[in-house]
Automatic annotation (TrEMBL):
GO MF annotations in UniProt: cobalamin binding; metal ion binding
Ranges of residues in domain B12-binding N-terminal: 71-165
Organism name: freshwater metagenome
InterPro entries for the chain: Cbl-bd_cap, Cobalamin-bd, Cobalamin-bd_sf, DNA-bd_dom_put_sf, HTH_17, Meth_synthase_dom
Domain B12-binding: 164-285
Organism placement in taxonomy: unclassified sequences, metagenomes, ecological metagenomes
Protein name in UniProt: Unannotated protein
Length: 285
C-alpha cells in the first residue's frame, strides 16, 4: 500500500489537524494527543477538532527530532507553568489537570504546584491581558479551570494534629481576585494553622464580624492584587485594628503591595511578600 501524502493545506497554509500532525511526527494519534495534553505540543480546538500551527510543529520537531518518551519527559526539568498556561489558554480543563498530574508524578510537591506552576501561569496570563494581548475572557476561563484544579488538590493541604491557632484570610471590597486568597489559605493549612477563607470582595464589616467570631484567632491576612483596591484595603485594615483593639496582628500582601513601607502605609502590622515570609511573621507572633 502506498502511503498517502499529508496535505497540510487541508485546514490552512499555516495549520493542520492533530491527525495530520501525528502523521508528520510519525507517531500514533494518541501519542500526539498526549503531547498536547501534557503541554509539549501547542494546539487549539476549532469546530471540535484539535489543530496545530505549522510553526509550532516545526519547533517541536526541531526540539524532538525523534518520537519522545512521554514518561521520560515528565521526569526532566521542565517549565511546567508554561505547559499549563498553554492548556489554560486553550480552555482545556482536562489537559490542564493532566499537566498537573504529570508534574506531581515527576516529583513536584503540591506546594510547588501552587507557587511554581499555577501561580506563574496565572500571572503570565494576567500580564498578557494587561498589555492588551488577550481578551479578558481568557483570564476568566483560566481562573475557572485553576479553581477546579485547586478544588481537587485542596484536601492534600489539610494538616493533622493540633493547630497553631486560627487565621482569617480574605480580600477587601472591590478586590475580585480570589484565587490568591485560596492559595494562601491552603498553604497556611499545610503549615498547621486553622484557616478561614473569606474569599474576595468582602465588605469591611463582614470581615470584622468573621474575625470576632473566629475562635483562637491569631492573625488576619488581607490580600490586595489590584491597585484600585488599595484604598478599600487601607480602610479595612484601620477598621480591623480598631475593632480588635489592635490585639489581632494584620498582615498584608499581594501584587499591589510592593514593600514593607507600602504595607505600613496601608496600616498593616507586617508585609508578606510571599507565603514563607508570612509564615515567619505568624510564628514570630
Amino acid at each position: 500500500m502506498v502511503a498517502q501524502k499529508v496535505v497540510v493545506e487541508s485546514v490552512s497554509a499555516h495549520e493542520m489537524t492533530l491527525h495530520e500532525a501525528a502523521e508528520m511526527l510519525d507517531v500514533h494519534y494518541m501519542t500526539a494527543y498526549r503531547y498536547v495534553r501534557l503541554g509539549l505540543l501547542p494546539a487549539h480546538k476549532a469546530a471540535g477538532t484539535w489543530r496545530v500551527l505549522l510553526s509550532d510543529l516545526r519547533q517541536f520537531q526541531g526540539q524532538n527530532p525523534e518520537p519522545i518518551d512521554v514518561e521520560d519527559s515528565r521526569k526532566k526539568n521542565v517549565l511546567w507553568w508554561e505547559r499549563l498556561e498553554a492548556r489554560l489558554l486553550a480552555g482545556d480543563g482536562s489537559g490542564a489537570w493532566a499537566v498537573v498530574e504529570a508534574a506531581l508524578v515527576a516529583g513536584v510537591s503540591v506546594e510547588d504546584i501552587y507557587t511554581k506552576v499555577l501561580s506563574p501561569a496565572m500571572v503570565s496570563i494576567g500580564d498578557q491581558w494587561a498589555r492588551g494581548d488577550l481578551e479578558i475572557y481568557y483570564e476568566h476561563q483560566a481562573s475557572a479551570i485553576v479553581g477546579r484544579i485547586m478544588g481537587r488538590l485542596g484536601p492534600r493541604f489539610v494538616g493533622r494534629g493540633r493547630t497553631k491557632g486560627s487565621i482569617v484570610v480574605g480580600a477587601p471590597q472591590g478586590e475580585r481576585h480570589g484565587l490568591v486568597v485560596s492559595m494562601v489559605a491552603d498553604l497556611l493549612r499545610q503549615r498547621g494553622w486553622e484557616v478561614f477563607d473569606l474569599g474576595a470582595d468582602l465588605p469591611a464589616q463582614s470581615f470584622i464580624a468573621a474575625v470576632k467570631n473566629t475562635p483562637d484567632v491569631v492573625a488576619a491576612c488581607v490580600s490586595v492584587t489590584s491597585p484600585s483596591a488599595r484604598d478599600a484595603a487601607c480602610e479595612l485594615i484601620a477598621a480591623l485594628r480598631e475593632a480588635s483593639g489592635d490585639a489581632v496582628p494584620i498582615y498584608v500582601g499581594g501584587a499591589a503591595v510592593l514593600s514593607a513601607p507600602d504595607a505600613e502605609e496601608l496600616g498593616a502590622h507586617g508585609w508578606a511578600s510571599n507565603v514563607d515570609v508570612l509564615v515567619g511573621l505568624l510564628e514570630q507572633g
